[in-house]
Amino acid sequence: MVDHDSPDDPARDVPTPDDATVDDMVGESALQLWAAAQTDFDPFQVPPEEWADDPVPVRDADITHDTGLDLDVVQASLGRLDGVTLVLGRDAGSLSVTRVIPQDRPL
Asked: CA–CA separation, 85 vs 25, rounded Å?
């Protein structure tokens, strides 16, 4: 059994990120992966009203891999970001980012 209170335990000094930090990491990863997945248009260069009708979604597993966070942490963060900076789709327990919300546009 590992004693996490022991000064010799390397896990003892690893800080646990708070929700805001996790949300920043997940949000940035989702935005970057979503933008990269769009092959028909560049969401950074095209106004939102000209975005494709069927953008390529980004799976929670891809964000998990990109950030190195646990899947349940990523899914909880995506839930907090849904309707704020991202639009999610749900399928059989998995979440996908189907759209991003530009900062200057309400949902």
From this structure: 13
What does residue 6 show for φ and ψ, rounded to 5 degrees? Answer: -70, 135
Domain locations in the chain as residue ranges: 16-100
Which run of H or of E encompasses 63? helix 60-67
Tokens of 9: 């335990």
What's the rounded Cα separation, in Å, for the pair 20 and 36? 24
Q: pTM for this one?
A: 0.76
CB 30 within 8 A of CB 82: no
Q: What is the mean pLDDT of the chain?
A: 82
Which 8-state DSSP code applies to residue 47?
A: -
Cα–Cα distance measured from residue 43 to residue 97, given in angstroms and rounded to the nearest whole number: 14
Pick the CATH number of 16-100 from 1.10.150, 1.20.1270, 1.10.3470, 1.10.10: 1.10.10
